Structures are given as C-alpha cells and as structure tokens.
Amino acid sequence: MDGVVSLLDNQHCQEIDCLRDELATKFNVRIVECPHISYQVAEQYDITALRSVMFQLANNCTSFQVLTTGLGFFTGAQPIIYIPVVRSRILSDLHQQIWEAIAPLSSGMSSHYEPDRWIPHITLIYEHLTPTQLSDLAHWLGDRCFNWTITLNNLSLLQNDGVEQWQFGCGELGCGEKL
C-alpha cells in the first residue's frame, strides 16, 4: 500500500528515532521508519497524475501546526500503537481537499482514511505485536509525554516498494523533490 502523507518535522522525527532504538533493544519490535500523518492510503495510484495534483495541492496550502496528545491503540488481529493527532478545522479541511483531489487517481483505497472515518494519527508500531507485547509496550510508553506541537509543511508520497517517494513543500512553488 502507498500513501499520501505529511512527513513530521526534524525535531519529532528525531524523538521517534530515539524511541525506535529503545524499542528495538528492549522489546525487539520495529517502529515505523518514516514518521508521518496519512491522508489517504491506496493499493495503486496513477503516479503521473498524482504528482501533478500533489504539486497543486501543496502550492495552495500553507504550513500549519497540529497538536498530539497521549497514546492510542487500534485493536484487531494486527494491533497498532499510535500517537493521536488532535483533529482541527485546518487539518480536516486539508484532508478533505486531498481526498477529493486524489480519489479519482487511486484504486484500492483504504476506507479507514475516508473523511468521515479518518482518525489522524502517527503510527509508532504496526507489525507483529502479541497481546503480551501490546500490554508491556503500553505500560512502558505510558510514562512518556506525547503532547507535541508539530509543524506540517509538506505533502509527500510514500510507496512501500521504495521505487519513488517525493515531497512537495506547502506554498513553495516548484518544490518537488525525491526523498
């Protein structure tokens, strides 16, 4: 699955990198490699058209801040541990614009990211968690503060196959670069 996302700023990427090292050592779990907030996830995109649309969307947005708080869990066969992002008007409006603009360019979209169902979050751990690990991780992470203010200033494409990933800076005409 591929996704249209905003990558986190350097400060918060570094905080998550530190967590990654600790979690790998203490719990033998993998944490997400490229911290981000997802707006839409799909099996496939029309990459040529998507690049153009993302460029236009990025040029029409400005940087803004989001707040995070606490720790969350998506339950099920593959539990996920995440940092909740407070849903604001500006974040919801941007998500709606992105969804409407890129939905026609995608196939196999995940319904979890539909505007009425979307829960903005930063995934920390998403693979191979046992119920015991989930409990232990929740206890260990519960002592940490995830009350962050994060500046979002980009729209990016993340592809699982690593073939092409690029980022467009918000409001920066002509800024499209491979990651």
Task: Characterize the structure shown.
With 179 residues, the chain is α+β, with helices and mostly antiparallel strands. It contains 4 helices and 12 strands, in the order E-H-E-E-H-E-E-E-H-E-E-H-E-E-E-E. The strands form 4 sheets. Strands 2-1-10-11-12 form a 5-stranded antiparallel sheet, covered by helices on one side.
Structural class by sheet pairing and helices: alpha+beta
> Which CATH-level-2 architecture?
Alpha-Beta Complex
Major sheet: 5 strands, antiparallel
Please write the string of helix (H) and strand (E) elements. EHEEHEEEHEEHEEEE
Strand segment tally: 12
Strand order within the widest sheet? 2-1-10-11-12
CATH topology description: Cyclic Phosphodiesterase, Chain: A
The end-to-end distance, rounded to whole angstroms, is 18 Å
Number of domains: 1
The CATH homologous superfamily is called Cyclic phosphodiesterase
The rounded Rg comes to 16 Å
List keywords for this structure.
disordered C terminus; five-stranded antiparallel β-sheet; alpha+beta; three-stranded antiparallel β-sheet; Cyclic Phosphodiesterase, Chain: A; single chain; 179 residues; 12 strands; 4 helices
Question: What is the element layout, followed by pairings?
Answer:
Blueprint: E1 2-7, H1 10-27, E2 36-42, E3 44-45, H2 47-59, E4 64-67, E5 72-74, E6 80-84, H3 89-102, E7 106-107, E8 121-125, H4 131-141, E9 149-152, E10 154-158, E11 166-169, E12 176-178
Antiparallel strand pairs: 1-2, 1-10, 3-7, 4-9, 5-6, 6-8, 10-11, 11-12
